[in-house]
Amino acid sequence: MPAIETERLLIRPFRLSDAEDAFEWRSDPEVNRFMPYPCDTDIAALRQRIGEWIKEKDKFALELKETGKVIGDISLEWSEKDKAYEIGYNINRRFWGRGYATEAVSGLLDWATVEIGAHDFTAFYAMENGASGRVLEKCGFRQEYTGRYSRNDGSEVFEAAFVRIHIE
Question: Which of 19, 52, 104, 137 has a CA 20 to 30 Å removed from the CA of 42?
């Protein structure tokens, strides 16, 4: 995937050199509060995971064009179950409330529709995480159903909204 340029962001493949920036949000319990995976505690392990993301080509860095700092990630993965591309995202807490998540999701939707011919997208969020719900709503997602998801280790279960958008 080439870099996607939005007003303030470059959405681009991760680089191993992004590990320091990524560790800032991936090790933050507040950012991780509703994520299925645990907080990162080891930057070397995160660097390895970034290597996997680079190979798998489904998780991308959100880089501030103005400074080059990576402030989050966004993913686009095919869901056979939903017959749609699932979008997920995460933003460094220092950059919350500035519209970066909405800008990133919108930019990725535009790119995927035009460049790969994708028309159906899904996402989900914890009902307690209203900010994430507002991001998806602003991007045109509508609630399809409610349900639950859990942390990968089963330690916590979240009430969730599952949302979808179809773009012609």
Answer: 104
Segment holding 100, helix H or strand E: helix 100-115
Closest C-alpha among 85, 91, 73 to residue 115: 85
Reduced to 3 states (helix: H, G, I; strand: E, B; else coil), residue 18 is: helix
- Residue by residue, pLDDT tens for the chain (168 residues) are 779 999 999 999 999 999 999 999 999 999 999 999 999 999 999 999 999 999 999 899 999 999 999 999 999 999 999 999 999 999 999 999 999 999 999 999 999 999 999 999 999 999 999 999 999 999 999 999 999 999 999 899 999 999 999 999
**Letter for the amino acid at 10?**
L
pTM to 2 decimal places: 0.94
Sign of CA dihedral 8, 13, 17, 23: positive
Query: How far apart (Å, rounded) are the C-alpha atoms in residues 49 and 55?
Result: 10
Instruction: CATH number of the domain at 22, please.
Output: 3.40.630.30
Q: Which of 71, 113, 69 has its CA nearest to residue 95?
A: 71
DSSP, res 155? S
How far apart CA 168 and CA 165 sit, in angstroms, is 10
Query: How many structural domains are present in the chain?
Result: 1
Cβ proximity of 33 and 25 under 8 Å: no
